[in-house]
Specification:
- With 236 residues, this protein is mainly alpha-helical.
- The chain has a domain of 146 residues.
- It is 79% helix and 0% strand.
- The mean pLDDT is 81.
């Protein structure tokens, strides 16, 4: 898992490590409290399932954090970043869904309340959370594409405006020089430099962005929260 983490996410930032430690301790405490409800002995199989659960949670937390970073600032190496993140999010969804399916079959075969019910609930939440993170990543990709298209269109338009402004300034200067020559006066000095379209940079371009993003994020949050509520109600 450490090698897979290095492959998909690279070296974790100090703030990510600190957040993972805090969330992991909370998850461990929560699981230990749930053990008192079922009153089962802690054996090797329980430890295996617990490590599997904690692994899925940690992997999901890292992916969710990277999506938040993507929403705040563009990556330094976009191609490598998106390849790594898409593979990691897909692996998270497949892993959580596979574990949930396995535990469902185990619960059906045993047909009695035990710790597997708690693991089923946890992996169902993890699967939903991983899918929600995947949808958020998709929304971020759509926003990036829309903003990029708007930036390119605005850049072309802005350069066209600069060319027209430059041509107009040259025309006005020619008129001023011709008028000065007709009156027998020396040509006026040019103090204002001519604008150059190559000086227009994408960083100086402001675009409206994707206005519907907030609606999609809100809809996704509502659907995820509704699923958690319905699942918790059915389980109880």
């Amino acid at each position: 898992m450490y090698g897979l983490q290095r492959l998909c996410y690279g070296e974790l930032r100090p703030i990510e490590i600190e957040q993972l430690y805090e969330k992991a301790w909370f998850a461990i405490t929560e699981t230990c409290l749930a053990m008192t409800i079922f009153r089962e002995e802690v054996g090797a199989w329980f430890l295996v399932m617990f490590v599997a659960l904690l692994t899925g949670k940690v992997w999901g937390w890292i992916g969710d954090g990277r999506v938040e970073v993507l929403e705040q600032q563009p990556p330094a190496n976009p191609r490598l970043f998106h390849i790594r993140l898409s593979v990691s999010l897909a692996a998270s969804i497949l892993y959580d869904a596979w574990m949930m399916s396995y535990i469902i079959n185990s619960v059906i075969q045993q047909a009695r309340p035990n710790m597997m019910v708690m693991f089923l609930f946890e992996f169902a939440i993890l699967t939903t959370a991983s899918m929600s993170t995947g949808f958020r990543y998709t929304i971020s990709l759509i926003e990036t594409r829309i903003v990029g298209k708007q930036t390119r269109e605005r850049l072309v338009e802005r350069r066209r405006e600069v060319r027209e402004e430059r041509a107009e300034m040259i025309r006005q200067r020619e008129i001023a020089i011709a008028a000065a020559a007709a009156e027998g006066n020396p040509a006026p000095e040019e103090t204002e430099p001519l604008p150059n379209e190559e000086d227009v940079d994408e960083m100086d371009i402001e675009v409206p962005g994707w206005e519907a993003k907030g609606q999609w994020i809100l809809t996704l949050a509502l659907c995820t929260g509704m699923y958690f509520f319905c699942y918790a109600y059915d389980t109880s």
